[in-house]
Design goal:
294 residues, Rossmann fold, 16% strand, 38% helix, alpha/beta, eight-stranded mixed β-sheet
Amino acid sequence: MTIRRPEDFKHYEVQLPDVKIHYVREGAGPTLLLLHGWPGFWWEWSKVIGPLAEHYDVIVPDLRGFGDSEKPDLNDLSKYSLDKAADDQAALLDALGIEKAYVVGHDFAAIVLHKFIRKYSDRVIKAAIFDPIQPDFGPVYFGLGHVHESWYSQFHQLDMAVEVVGSSREVCKKYFKHFFDHWSYRDELLTEEELEVHVDNCMKPDNIHGGFNYYRANIRPDAALWTDLDHTMSDLPVTMIWGLGDTCVPYAPLIEFVPKYYSNYTMETIEDCGHFLMVEKPEIAIDRIKTAFR
């Protein structure tokens, strides 16, 4: 299969109040904002951008610290809070003169979107969250029954982690390949060419560090990740889309917590799919997004 490489897309940069953000943009129509997670960057949406651009003005940014977006002071973890990342999306819409958008978030961006929906509900038409994460996630994620899956989040806290993973291209490739494969339903998520694109991104200056800072700032047992506002109920129309084979953000027991935070949601589950729906089953991802945003 021929892939669309990063250079096959149109790239833009915009200076926001405290960070420069890189994004890809394609199509026309109502705005659709696609937000990536770790260990990805904007390109994790590459298989769905073109088809969705037939119906939407698709905007796909790199979160601060990722991809070709700016990496603010790497020693100041406050600059890598997920609240900051949520604020960036509002600032991005402001900079582009966009009042409202459909928004999709995955992985870290599932948390970003949880926050964005509450802080900027007037900017969201409808939302879709892949493998949703709510405030009750912490006890499950850090629990003894999940530590074999969440160990990496604590490895990322170590000063040596960035140096070790970035010590060579081969080490970087093996490290990130583990997560792409382990979190997907099938044994190997990416082709060799696709994997090399991700390694190219990770080996850019400070990209490993920027991604690890999201764990250092937000994913620790003592992190102040969730605000009082994050614990409130939202009545915004939201579609939750969950790969039943996701071992990173498991459907059970996390499904139990969704009704505590959303009163107007639809739940979609995908068989034979893991953490990366937009990569594993792009046709289904496209269909579910279009259906959710009718």
